[in-house]
Specification:
single chain, alpha/beta, 7-stranded mixed beta sheet, 23 strands
Length: 550
């Protein structure tokens, strides 16, 4: 379909967040969605080329705060299904990339509106029960952030397409075409953010690419609800394939295919490094047509650094939220803190008081702040770190928490460890749970400890400085320049908002391609420069070659 004119997309605004206060219609409708979802256990197929495929290899997604209850079952993709998914994507590719951009964009903008209305309570309920989020954590993720990605990314894409050469020589016209990648893109998404599950396949798709998407096995239901909304919004069959499955089966099928053109990934550093190694070997063997675009957001060991001038109450409350909201399972969660000895007693007492007040329970209990971690593997991993701290009392002290109970849900208490050794294991390694390790430093050693913070962890995702001294803030800004991809001043190190704080980190935290910005979308296009000449040459000679007249 051709258009007369150049349509401009609607200007995006961040989705207003709802509070589900007592007596509100939102609260009533969400409760109904939760009650309905607890009674059901849908069977979720793979979806390839618009066709539902049931492989018979069935797994379960459990309610993590009520781990004897099955939330849904799902069929895992087989190698044959993965092969069909790639073929279906490549078949859909010519028509999808030829579709005018505004028509592609309209699908994702409509999906945002469906999630803001019709699907809001269903996707929130699936996220709360399946991924263990409280109502507020689900709202800021599955509703607000997901919708923001779908509204802001089309506008960023529009800005990219508008970037053209500023100059043209006489008689010529220069332009740049932003082509989709030559092949398919693999999207591998994590459990901890429904919004990331939505963004990883849709960001490349907006730029005209076709996608094979592997959602996390512990986020199947919310991701399936999102896929339903995409389909209702008019996404053509085959543009995005929905393929739950075992990592090895999916990875072998995708990364060993000659048409593999890119990866959009969020997960562990170890897994991402393994994929990079596999694709490097395949490149060396001459398998691919070109160099695949590898975009990954991986681990983090995020910090709060406190200067002696900081407001103790502000530090304590911001750290409680950053460390223990969503049970510390955000990539950006605060898991280490550096506190001057002069402020530590006050900050400690405020935090201990807050934890004592903190209600814990089922994720669909609207009065809780804190619930269970995602699954048994996570529970065992976190418990291992806590056992390590308990067995090294000469190096670290657990001052609150440390308990684990998986009888009803995978429950780990919010825990604070005070480390005597600034390189103690829980100061350096990613735990991905509700565990905060504190190192108390001498006030006079502010700059020395900043350097220590910078050098302690291999990661560089998020970090915060708390201070009322502008010179101290600037010092931290300089010394910690490479210690985080998102740096916060007098604010918690979590909660990046699409359109406001592009998100991503470097070092071992990923490729820092900044989700929620045009920087990420640029990774999904291959630019072609076009020069058109309007004035034909009348000779092959240059003027300097003319005969010299004496």
């Amino acid at each position: 379909m051709s258009h007369i004119g150049r349509p401009a997309l609607p200007s995006p605004i961040n989705e207003p967040m709802r509070h589900y206060e007592p007596g509100s219609v939102d609260r009533k409708l969400l409760r109904q969605a939760l009650e309905k979802m607890r009674k059901e256990s849908p069977e979720i197929p793979c979806i390839v080329g618009g066709k539902e495929i049931k492989t018979g290899d069935i797994k379960q997604q459990l309610i993590c705060s009520d781990n004897k209850k099955v939330l849904c079952t799902f069929h895992q993709a087989s190698p044959a299904v993965m092969q069909e998914a790639v073929e279906s994507a490549m078949k859909a590719k010519p028509a999808w990339e030829a579709l005018p951009f505004e028509d592609r964009a309209a699908i994702f903008i409509k999906t945002a509106d469906l999630l803001a209305g019709k699907y809001r309570y269903e996707i929130l309920a699936a996220t709360m029960l399946g991924q263990g989020k409280t109502v507020w954590q689900a709202e800021i993720d599955a509703a607000a952030e997901t919708i923001d990605f779908l509204r802001f990314n089309p506008k960023y894409a529009e800005e990219i397409y508008a970037q053209q050469p500023p100059a043209n020589s006489k008689g010529t016209w220069n332009r740049v075409e932003y082509r989709p990648l030559e092949g398919f893109v693999a999207a591998i998404s994590p459990f901890n953010f429904t919004a990331i599950g939505a963004n990883l396949p849709t960001a490349p798709a907006m730029m005209g690419n076709v996608i094979v998407w592997k959602p996390a096995s512990t986020a199947i239901l919310s991701n399936y609800v999102f896929f339903k909304a995409l389909t209702e919004a008019g996404l053509p069959d085959g543009v995005i394939q929905f393929c739950p499955g075992a990592g090895r089966v999916v990875g072998d099928s995708l990364f060993n295919h000659k048409d593999f053109a890119g990866l959009h990934f969020t997960g562990s550093t170890e897994v991402f490094n393994g994929i990079l190694q596999k694709t490097s070997n395949n490149l060396a063997a001459g398998l691919y047509k070109g160099y695949p675009r590898m975009v990954g957001e991986t681990g983090g060991k995020d910090f709060h650094f406190v200067h002696p001038s900081a407001d103790p109450e502000q530090v304590a409350f911001q750290t409680i939220r950053a460390a223990f909201e969503y049970q510390g399972q955000k990539c950006s969660a605060c898991s280490r803190m550096y506190v001057p000895s002069s402020l530590w007693p006050t900050i400690r007492d405020i935090m201990l008081g807050a934890i004592k007040e903190m209600k814990r329970g089922q994720s669909d209990d609207f009065s809780v702040f804190f619930t269970a971690v995602i699954d048994q593997a996570s529970f065992k991993n976190i418990k291992g770190y806590l056992d390590h701290a308990k067995s090294h009392a000469d190096q670290a002290e657990i001052i609150v928490g440390g308990g684990c109970d998986d009888s009803v849900g995978w429950n780990v208490e919010p825990t604070i460890i005070v480390a005597k050794d600034p390189k103690f294991r829980t100061m350096e390694e990613e735990i991905f749970g509700p565990v905060l390790t504190v190192y108390v430093y001498e006030d006079a050693k502010y700059e020395e400890t900043l350097h220590l913070c910078d050098e302690t962890s291999p990661y560089s995702l998020t970090g915060s400085i708390f201070s009322r001294d502008r010179y101290a803030i600037q010092t931290a800004h300089r010394i910690l320049r490479n210690a985080s991809g998102n740096f916060y001043i007098n604010d918690k190190c979590t909660g990046a908002v699409v359109g406001q704080q592009p998100f991503g980190g470097a070092r071992m935290s990923g490729t820092n391609d900044k989700a929620g910005s045009l920087l990420n979308l640029l990774r999904w296009v291959s630019a072609r420069t076009i020069k058109e000449n309007f004035v034909p040459l009348t000779t092959w000679k240059y003027p300097y070659m003319d005969d010299e007249k004496l």
